[in-house]
Amino acid sequence: MDHTYHFFQGNLNHSAGAQDMLLQTMSEWSIDVAVVAESYFVPPADDCWFGDVDGLAAILLRRSAMISPLAMVTRGPGIVALQLENTVVIGVYFSPNRPTVEFERFLDGLEVIARHLSPRSVILAGDFNAKSVAWGSPSTDALGRLLEEWVVAADLCIVNRGSVATCMRWTGESIVELTFASSSIAQRILGWGVVVGAESLSDHRYIRFNLSAPAPTPTAGARGVNSSRRASRSFPRWALKFLKKELLMEASMVAAWTPMRPHAFDVEAEAERFRGAMHRICDASMPRVGPRHCGRRQSPWWSPEIARLRAVSIRASRRCARHRRRRHLRRDDPVAFAEEETRLHGEYRAAKDALWLAIRRAKEQNMERLLDALEADLWGSP
């Protein structure tokens, strides 16, 4: 792991609009990996989506992110685990409607996975629906106490900071999205925070954090470290996850057809020729893993009008949140406070619905344009 990974965390409430907004936000913010609960749909043939067996937890890789391939480690009901270089990322979800005894079985399953993964570092993120003062909740419930004990026994650290609510509902607020990490990797998690003021089209807020590169460990003195750094800059790397085998075979055949130069055999010249051929073959069949690039910063259906509607929704959400914080109004005139709260919440719901409808309409129009383009050029441009 030689650079910083940008992580995202959230709950989509099985909403198509929330999933669309998640993908757009990942593109805008250059998020590499997202851990989501209650996704709307996990595409079965998409190599950027990895879901559990029940469709409750998923881990998503941004398509334009030039990072090392993710490898599935295991998955189960409400659990999915992936290998990201030397770190295992686990996404989880546990429903609040399930009894406490099932939560104990759920934690037992996580404990088995954690023991199996040892001594690899682990990032555990998801919606546990467990409340505890240890991660900022006003009080601790039964699930929170069980989770506290389990985290200590599993030697995990709580990454959550502050007491900003992660779930905002008409009935109240709560902190249920949690992030834990192995002690060996916890100090490399930077910038953890709940994103306030972003529209998710869900009643759950986004969470962002970064996983920084490990500090270099010199093994052969300063000269060895410098040589390693020079080597990492000199030799390119390719994203094997995006390898196209057909293009690889075609590029290899083209390279084999290249005639040999009629000169005396020279080892250095032949090594350089072979190296150049391998570079061209790899470049033709897969993208390089190089310096970060922005890539596409928006979805094909995104438009200035949708961006305007999102801004309107965010402003309505902030007005509603500010009103809830005015406790003196609730105390002095509870009837007027409730009426104003109902009005502001209605405006926020209307703004969210308008945004969701605009996204749905834009996606339908984008699909129609794609179909028209296919019909106009059935076999593709030469």
TrEMBL record:
Lineage, broadest ranks: Eukaryota, Metazoa, Ecdysozoa, Arthropoda, Hexapoda
Top-level division of the source organism's lineage: Eukaryota
Name of the gene encoding the protein in the UniProt record: LOC114252218
Protein name: Uncharacterized protein LOC114252218
Domain Endonuclease/exonuclease/phosphatase: 88-207
Species, as recorded: Bombyx mandarina (Wild silk moth)
Family annotation (Pfam families): Exo_endo_phos_2
Gene3D superfamilies: Endonuclease/exonuclease/phosphatase
GO molecular function: catalytic activity
